[in-house]
Design brief:
mainly alpha; about 80 residues; 2 helices; about 0% strand
Length: about 80
């Protein structure tokens, strides 16, 4: 099921952004491709609006670092 809903309510701004992205790409795009790209763009914008919530913790936590320890007798090699 594909639904396009504008969660931020600013379709004019979104239209302007999408047009700017197409123009900046410099790639010729057919009408059918434009329609599909627009659906994808709207989907990404709606997903971004869902995760960009006030109070969300955006702190990046470091991954644990593991270092191999040499076996007995291999440290001298």
């Amino acid at each position: 099921m594909t639904t396009i809903e504008d969660t931020d309510g600013d379709t004019e701004s979104r239209d302007h952004e999408f047009g700017g992205l197409l123009a900046a790409s410099g790639v010729p795009v057919s009408d059918a491709e434009t329609a599909e790209l627009r659906k994808a763009f709207d989907t990404l914008c709606n997903l971004a609006a869902r995760v960009r919530t006030p109070g969300r913790d955006w702190t990046v936590k470091p991954m644990p670092s593991f270092a191999a320890t040499p076996r007995d007798g291999e440290a001298d090699i």
